[in-house]
């Protein structure tokens, strides 16, 4: 089954920026584009029945899609106008998508993204990658060759999904993957004889972290030999280190552990921090 690039639209400037981004990505990947708009029947509009309100929603969505069709005449575009809650409709659409693209307001690294309740819920519950795009700035001005920055944490398998997404995206764009691994000094009681032996063999903490990043990247370098790779290892919190190199990014990719807690699904601290402070589009990739 060919999964589409799916864009959620609601008529706002941010969602139109997301639709534009999704259209270009679909062309790059050779995938169809699916556009989803969720609407709710408003009983307060006594002069308009459900059929009329659905027609209004459909007309507004078609107007948004018309520009994409004109800009990419060869692109296969499907449109779904569904009645119901936006979060539920978009989460369902994400399950069938290669990538779901949403709009989000934001004003740069100080204020960052203003991620609304729908965006938070969809990002937290989606089983497929979700890209957050905001109007203006780097969302609509992607310079060729700018980096796709991706965070790598833990063992190779922990970040395989995010690395795969980053390499596939960079390959489609002719961009460089800048892989970032942050590390901190562990508390003394966290050291064990086994870990101390590994650190001693690696020559210390920083060389150990550099080797861990190199090991995680190796299979993806082999799979994508034409994608340039830059490695960045720095001491600090993961979100802060990622944001420190975001100035050269056309896209930031972070992982999110797909698990539910007693209080429901969560975005995760690293993804949350990047989403609220990056000034480029951010892809959140779930993993087990």
Automatic annotation (TrEMBL):
It comes from the Bacteria. InterPro entries: Rossmann-like_a/b/a_fold (IPR014729), Universal_stress_UspA (IPR006015), UspA (IPR006016). Gene3D superfamilies: HUPs (3.40.50.620). It holds the Pfam family Usp. Residues 1-134, 155-286 form the UspA domain. Belongs to the universal stress protein A family. This is Universal stress protein. It comes from Streptomyces lucensis JCM 4490.
């Amino acid at each position: 089954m060919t999964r589409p690039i799916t864009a959620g639209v609601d008529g706002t400037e941010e969602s139109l920026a997301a639709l534009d981004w999704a259209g270009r990505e679909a062309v790059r990947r050779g995938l169809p584009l699916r556009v989803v708009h969720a609407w709710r029947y408003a009983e307060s509009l006594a002069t308009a029945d459900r059929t009329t309100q659905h027609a209004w929603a459909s007309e507004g969505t078609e107007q948004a899609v018309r520009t994409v069709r004109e800009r990419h005449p060869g692109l296969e575009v499907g449109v779904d106008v569904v009645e119901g809650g936006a979060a539920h409709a978009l989460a369902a659409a994400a399950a069938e998508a290669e990538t779901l693209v949403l709009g989000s307001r934001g004003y740069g690294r100080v204020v960052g993204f203003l991620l609304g309740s729908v965006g938070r819920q969809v990002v937290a519950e989606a089983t497929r990658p979700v890209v957050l795009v905001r109007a203006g700035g780097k969302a609509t001005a992607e310079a060729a060759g700018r980096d796709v920055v991706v965070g790598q944490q833990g063992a190779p398998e922990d970040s395989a999904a995010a690395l795969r997404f980053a390499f596939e995206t960079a390959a489609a764009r002719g961009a460089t993957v800048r892989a970032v691994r942050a590390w901190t000094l562990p508390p003394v009681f966290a050291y064990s004889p086994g870990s101390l032996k590994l650190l001693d063999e690696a020559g210390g903490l920083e060389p150990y972290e550099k080797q861990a990043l190199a090991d995680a990247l190796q299979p993806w370098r082999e799979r994508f030999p034409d994608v340039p790779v830059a490695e960045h290892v720095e001491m600090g919190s993961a979100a802060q280190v990622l944001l420190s190199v975001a100035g050269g990014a056309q896209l930031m990719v972070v992982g999110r552990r797909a698990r539910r807690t007693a209080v429901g699904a969560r975005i995760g601290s690293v993804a949350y921090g990047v989403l609220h402070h990056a000034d480029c589009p951010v892809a959140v990739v779930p993993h087990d």
